[in-house]
């Protein structure tokens, strides 16, 4: 089996948090490299003679958390999801105490991985009609197939990750032709494109990451979905919004908790929110936030360690 070594730059305060994120993301194991773990030669103790004084000089200034991920069809989305989790962690803590929280790949360079992972990514079916097809792979469509052609680059959303897979299933089940859709945190644009192909006449795809906006725009063009899908950079608070019958948010639990209330003002009464990216341990937090914001659970799905919810907006605004 081939492995990919992911390295996150952080601080002593962030080492254990980042290690836990990596393990929750599927790392086979982690290692924390921290200068603080090496005794100070200026304050020798009983065990100092066991250390080479040059060891401290050779260690990086940042605390490095290393995690090892098996290379397979899901690794692309696993690493992209980890980047999003790190960004969310930085947002929750203000970032400074935890350092840069940047992720790099050691065994496979980022630019190489952008090509190498493609060998694992083949066309696949989701639900009864949706087919996700990499742009470089041939596929003979069957009658009734709704084909989404995708080149995700390094943006999250190939469809193979459990969170995206469940969103696609819930979209196919609950999106009715004519519904307007807002995709919050669009990533590769896969959910926005699927919504358009399932009959949404107007889709607003929003992301704060300029790389995701670029990738999503390119994928919308590949699918000839530009008439229906508009991709913009921003967020729900400071960016553009769209009154809609359905919103989809495949992000992280904290972001869903934060956005659930504001989203009720953009969803029509009775409109649906499909949300995913929820690790099982955080499901109760999301359910509580959703209930307080005025949602009722319509459907729950679970795959592996992840949960997706379809919620109905029953909030009443003055």
Question: Can you describe this structure in just a few lines?
Answer:
The protein is α/β, with parallel strands linked by helices. It contains nine helices and 14 strands. Helix 7 links the parallel strand 9 and strand 10.
Protein model, in words:
- This protein has a seven-stranded mixed β-sheet, sandwiched between helices. Strands 2-3-1-4 form a four-stranded antiparallel β-sheet, with helices on one face.
- It has helices at residues 15-24, 54-58, 75-93, 110-116, 162-174, 190-197, 210-222, 253-263, 283-293; strands at residues 3-10, 30-33, 63-70, 103-105, 124-126, 130-134, 146-150, 181-184, 203-207, 229-233, 244-250, 267-279, 295-303, 306-313.
- The protein is globular.
- It has 318 residues and is of the alpha/beta class.
- The protein has two domains: 3-117, 2-Layer Sandwich (Alpha-Beta Plaits); 121-313, Vaccinia Virus protein VP39 (Rossmann fold, 3-Layer(aba) Sandwich).
- Helix 8 packs parallel to helix 9.
- Residues 44-53 have low confidence and may be disordered.
- It has nine helices and 14 strands.
- Strand 13 and strand 14 form a beta hairpin.
- Helices cover 31% and strands 27% of the residues.
Number of helices: 9
Number of strands: 14
Q: Please state the second-level CATH architecture of the largest domain.
A: 3-Layer(aba) Sandwich
The CATH topology of the largest domain: Rossmann fold
Low-confidence stretches: 44-53
Helix/sheet category: alpha/beta
CATH structural class of the largest domain = Alpha Beta
SSE order, one letter for each helix or strand: EHEHEHEHEEEHEHEHEEHEHEE
Distance between the termini: 58 Å
The CATH fourth-level homologous superfamily of the largest domain: Vaccinia Virus protein VP39
**What is the 3D form?**
globular
Radius of gyration: 21 Å
